[in-house]
Amino acid sequence: MSGRREEILDAALDIADEHGLEAVSMRALADRVGVTPMALYRHVKDKSALLDGMIGRLLTALLPARTPEDQTWEERLGALGHACREVTRRHPWAAHLLFSRPAVTPDAVRAVDIVYTALIDAGVPESQVPRLERLVSTFVIGFAASEASGRFSPGTLDPRSRRGQLPDEELPGHRRLAPYLDLPVDLTAEFEADLEDIRALIRAAAGRP
């Protein structure tokens, strides 16, 4: 990637951080880097290519320069999951972009390949690897997106107050789980537990105990 293209993509990331993803446009980007909109097309051909490039720039932070030879497949998946969560914490708008764009840039394809090779090394039958990669990616990005958007936060009402908006007989599941719903949630611990559940599913798909 040329230095000028990196500069342009970094400027686009800055605009999204400051004003949200919807503020990223070719005109706003041209103003930020001090060129005409037409001059941008030498480096990004259109808005779609710009968004793909932004994904690639974000994923650069996810990918190790090279995978340590002594890392297990479990460690590789865990490292990628944690890196994705960290990116969305720094750039809350990024989860939507990762969810809505296909993996077409070199860095995006490399990230998918890390998951592919981890699943292969785990012993998953090759015919099942693409399906499990989609499951792993959907979980990691979905968790990160929910956390970044505030979906996991209690909002303006605590769990008990939210349940109080409906009669108990309409919420048998909530009534049964009330002691657990009222507890504070440690999202980091929950993310770790979810990753281990994913690893257990992969071991099962590989025919391991």
Can you walk through the features of this model?
It is a single chain. With 209 residues, the chain is mainly α. The protein has two domains: 1-45, Arc Repressor Mutant, subunit A, CATH 1.10.10; 65-205, Tetracycline Repressor, domain 2. The protein contains eleven helices and no strands. The protein has helices spanning 3-19, 26-33, 37-40, 47-60, 73-90, 94-100, 106-122, 129-149, 159-163, 172-181, 187-205. α7 packs across α8 (129-149). The longest helix is centred in the middle third of the chain and has 21 residues, at 129-149. The protein is flat. The model has no long low-confidence stretch (mean pLDDT 86).
Q: Mind sketching the topology for me?
A:
Layout: H1 3-19, H2 26-33, H3 37-40, H4 47-60, H5 73-90, H6 94-100, H7 106-122, H8 129-149, H9 159-163, H10 172-181, H11 187-205
Helix pairs in contact: 1-2, 1-4, 4-7, 5-7, 5-8, 6-8, 7-8, 8-11
The tally of beta strands, per DSSP, is 0
Determine the fraction of residues in helical runs and give it as a percent range.
Answer: 55-70%
Strand content: under 5%
What's the order of the H and E elements? HHHHHHHHHHH
CATH topology of the largest domain: Tetracycline Repressor, domain 2
* Overall pLDDT metric: 86
Q: Report the uncertain regions.
A: none
Query: What is the CA-CA span between the terminal residues?
Result: 44 Å
